[in-house]
Design a protein that fits this description.
- This protein folds into three domains: 139 residues, no CATH class; 86 residues, Single alpha-helices involved in coiled-coils or other helix-helix interfaces; 31 residues, no CATH class.
- The N terminus is likely disordered.
- Helix 2 packs antiparallel against helix 7 and helix 7 runs antiparallel to helix 8.
- By secondary structure, the chain is an all-alpha fold.
- The radius of gyration is 43 Å and the shape is rod-shaped.
- It catalyses: ATP + protein L-histidine = ADP + protein N-phospho-L-histidine.
- Keywords: ATP-binding, Kinase, Membrane, Nucleotide-binding, Phosphoprotein, Transferase, Transmembrane, Transmembrane helix, Two-component regulatory system.
């Protein structure tokens, strides 16, 4: 039973429970009418009515969803059960049965087919009421206790159905609101996790760049120091060789400084944020000049843009 409920195509579970409530009300009305003889003028077969209600409720546990022929056969069988119970069995509160059929129809069919089935349900309900109208002249006046019982039954049914439906509707809305809140909290948590991951990746990247700077600069300084020591030793005996060592040491220092500048530029989040287009271009050109040592001349004319 639970598996069938889980497979039910109702978008809201309370609709299924409300359908069972309507069927339960019809069964109670049948029992109540038989006990107080409220519908003795109608041709009634209570056992047939209960059998039709049982089958009608069971087939509602699994709605057809794919094959169109199965949908038509399913809906036609529903009509047969209702007509059999109303015309032959004399079941009471027939509109509630057609209300359940219309609710199922809204989940089975779409578009024009849904409208056609709903219209047929209303027509069948009207025909049933007209069919029963011929028994009006045969109805004897009800006794006072029967009238009181009938009024009490109708009042309780109207109030009970309205109350239960309102409570279920409010519960469904509250559950949807709670689900939306949980979804919002989950989205905030995911956003926070994404920011943390981004920050962690940034920290790891900066640590890697810092290690690269340390390794490259340390290597350059070590080699440069060796060149300087060699230049000092050769300065008196071989000035030309010492000059070459000094030039190589200078080149190593320039390369190390260039790598440090590039690494620092990489560590910046976005150095061009807040700058105009001309300032951003000038900044990039100046950065290129410092890193490459190439003399550049910049002319900007943005009037035609």
């Amino acid at each position: 039973m639970i598996l069938l409920i889980e497979n039910r195509k109702y978008p809201l579970r309370f609709l299924l429970y409300f359908e069972w409530l309507l069927l339960g009300i019809i069964i109670c009305s049948e029992t109540f009418a038989s006990f107080f003889s409220l519908a003795s003028s109608l041709p009634r077969i209570p056992l047939l009515n209960l059998f039709c209600l049982l089958i009608f409720g069971i087939i509602g546990l699994k709605l057809p969803s794919q094959n169109k022929l199965n949908k038509v056969i399913y809906t036609g069988f529903e009509f047969v059960l209702i007509v059999l119970a109303s015309m032959v069995g004399g079941i009471l509160i027939v509109p509630l049965l057609y209300l359940v059929l219309i609710a199922r129809n809204c989940l089975i069919f779409e578009g024009i087919t849904r409208s056609i089935v709903s219209s047929l349900a209303m027509i069948f309900a009207l025909v049933t009421q007209l069919y029963r109208a011929k028994y009006i002249n045969m109805v004897q006046p009800l006794a006072m206790n029967q009238q009181l019982g009938l009024v009490l039954l109708v009042s309780v049914l109207i109030l009970g159905i309205s109350t239960v439906f309102m409570q279920m509707a409010v519960n469904a809305i509250a559950q949807e609101f709670e689900s939306r809140q949980k979804l919002a909290v989950a989205n905030d948590q995911l956003r926070e996790y994404a920011l943390r991951i981004e920050e962690l990746a940034t920290v790891q990247e900066r640590n890697r760049i810092a290690r690269d700077i340390h390794d490259s600069v340390g290597h350059a300084l070590t080699v440069s120091n060796l060149h300087l020591e060699a230049a000092l030793k050769l300065w008196q005996t071989d000035p030309e060789e010492a000059t070459e060592f000094l030039m190589e040491a200078k080149q190593l220092g320039s390369n190390a400084l260039k790598e440090v500048r590039q690494s620092i530029a990489t560590l910046r989040v976005d150095p061009l944020v807040g700058l105009s287009l001309s300032d951003a271009i000038a900044n990039l050109v100046e950065e290129f000049k410092r890193s490459s040592g190439i003399l550049t001349i910049l002319e900007i004319n943005l009037q035609s843009i």
